[in-house]
Write a structure and sequence with these properties.
The chain is mainly alpha-helical. About 50% of the residues lie in helices and about 0% in strands. The chain has a single domain (about 5-80), classed as Four Helix Bundle (Hemerythrin (Met), subunit A), CATH 1.20.120. The chain contains 3 helices and no strands. The structure holds zinc ion.
Length: about 80
């Protein structure tokens, strides 16, 4: 058996660029929020305006918690990543 001096590190972000890591982290937040919404029975409802999130948006971004309009407003204000 070979002795390895340093334990190999495992990470979901291994080999990713900073942008890829950030996008994965944002996606994980969205997924967590969507799971919470499913649990609370409000999945598919925009957390900002209360309107239904269009099914086509949910097909593309299943973890979306805001409708396209509200998401664009947030992105314009924050200059963040639109997913
Ligand atoms: Zn909305």
């Amino acid at each position: 058996m070979e002795v390895i001096g340093k334990k190999e590190e495992y990470s979901a972000f291994r080999g990713d660029t900073h942008h890829e890591r950030l996008k994965k982290k944002v996606s994980m937040i969205y997924i967590k929020n969507a799971l919470t919404a499913i649990h609370e029975g409000v999945y598919g409802v925009c957390i900002a305006c209360g309107e239904k999130i269009p099914i086509n948006r949910l097909k593309i971004v299943p973890g979306a918690v805001r409708c396209t309009s509200c998401e664009e407003k947030i992105q314009n204000q924050c200059g963040g990543i639109l997913i």
